[in-house]
Design brief:
The chain has 408 residues and is an all-alpha fold. Among the domains are: 157 residues, no CATH class; 105 residues, no CATH class. The chain is 65% helix and 0% strand. It contains 19 helices and no strands. Helix 8 packs across helix 10. The N and C termini lie far apart (89 Å). The relative contact order is 0.08. About 6% of the residues have low confidence.
Length: 408
């Protein structure tokens, strides 16, 4: 009997060692895969670069799909009943859903915008002792879907307005007003709403004028919410994470997963920026590799890369010289295209670009970005409102861009 116990004990030790080795191997493989993709992006081989792009976008797509699935599965539990006998379970459901909304915001999952707009009024969890008091929870915890939409900037505006003008509750109109005011500022948000209402022939469920006036009123009274990164370097992260843990009941596991996903995204964006810098410094990186990195920065909506993309506005698609072209197309310039993808958050930074005054072509590209993101009418309104009598340099840039918006 003792012999069999010893044999069982030895096999147990071997199994544990193999499991730990496998876990470490998976961790190294996951890290290696990302590093390998960044290495392939530097290649002159078109197939290798495309494999890297596909890997990065597929990895992101898997995370987005899981986060949306978890939030959808728990969306039926978003109407908290204070008198419910199962209050604790309902609180947990909201908490799990909120983590998924945070993931979508952290990785700038713009393809989730229709889903977030549909769930605009979803409420996050809050401590039990706040249920009976007037002090509300933090805005980002109380309205996680709306908060994510603010982080997405102008990309969320059109689908949000479409839903509001179809007819929604007053609470949803109020949340939409906060998103619009936070994205555009109150003045530009009012211009956007008035313009959109004017385009509509008739309402589906409520009077267009009534909805417009309600939105405008809420915008005037709205808070301006600044979307900030949830993640800090103090939170625990792991290399070998499993996205299936996103609906785990343990909040520590979900928080660790959220931080790990965000950390990986930051490392990827940093690696892509190094590729562009190495190309600019002629350190063995070709223009096609730089273009792939710039395109990915736009696809990932990498706000961290706005200064870098602004410095390389005039970098042109190296293949466009071989294509027939009769007129100027701003989107032939990868940095322009990526800044448009990133959206309105890029506008204040590109407006301060010193090259606007000295280089008419940079002014032309900057004007194209404003027009692509905002539309001609709103771009003109916004530029006029930004003039500052105490900042001659800013005013000069605005004048140069303004002319290019009117006459590209």
């Amino acid at each position: 009997m003792l012999k069999y116990i010893k044999i069982f004990f030895i096999y147990g030790i071997v199994f544990i060692c193999q499991f730990l080795t496998l876990d470490n191997t998976c961790s190294r493989a996951q890290t290696h895969s990302l590093n390998d993709a960044l290495h392939k992006l530097r290649s002159t081989d078109v197939k290798l670069r495309q494999d890297a792009v596909d890997f990065i976008l597929e990895r992101r797509g898997q995370i987005v799909a899981k986060a949306m699935s978890v939030a959808e599965n728990y969306s039926d539990n978003n109407r908290l009943n204070v008198n419910s006998a199962n209050l604790k379970a309902e609180y947990k459901h909201r908490e799990v859903a909120m983590t998924s909304y945070q993931v979508l915001g952290e990785i700038k999952a713009y393809d989730s915008i229709p889903f977030l707009v549909k769930n605009l009024n979803s409420k996050g969890p809050y401590p039990y002792d706040r249920l009976a008091v007037s002090s509300p929870p933090p805005w980002n915890e109380h309205h996680p879907a709306a908060y994510a939409l603010i982080d997405f900037g102008t990309a969320s505006v059109e689908p949000l307005l479409d839903r509001v003008f179809e007819g929604v509750s007053n609470d949803e109109v109020r949340l939409a007003a906060t998103v619009l005011a936070s994205v555009h500022g109150k003045h530009a948000a009012q211009v956007v709403v008035t313009s959109r209402a004017g385009e509509l022939n008739g309402p589906k469920s409520r009077n267009t004028t009534e909805i417009r006036d309600l939105l405008l009123n809420y915008i005037k009274l709205s808070l301006i919410i600044q979307a900030t990164q949830f993640i800090t370097n103090e939170h625990e992260v792991i290399s070998n994470y499993d996205i299936l843990q996103l609906d785990d009941e343990d909040s520590k596991i979900r928080l660790r997963l959220l931080n790990s996903i965000a950390r990986e995204r930051r490392e990827l964006i940093s690696g892509l920026q190094f590729i562009v810098r190495d190309w600019a410094a002629a350190r063995g990186v070709g223009p096609h590799a730089a273009m792939s990195a710039i395109v990915l920065l736009g696809e990932l909506h990498a706000t961290e890369a706005i200064p870098l993309l602004t410095r390389h506005l005039a970098f042109k698609n190296p293949d466009s010289e071989n294509l027939p072209q009769k007129e100027f197309r701003a989107l032939d310039y990868p940095s322009v295209n990526s800044l448009v993808r990133i959206g309105s958050v890029s506008l204040p930074l590109i407006l301060k670009n010193d090259d606007i005054d000295s280089d008419p072509f940079v002014a032309r590209l900057t004007g194209a970005i404003y027009k692509e993101i905002l539309g001609k009418e709103i771009a003109i309104e916004l530029l006029q409102s930004l003039k500052n009598p105490d900042d001659s340099s800013l005013n000069t840039n605005i004048d140069k861009i303004f002319g290019r918006v009117l006459n590209p």
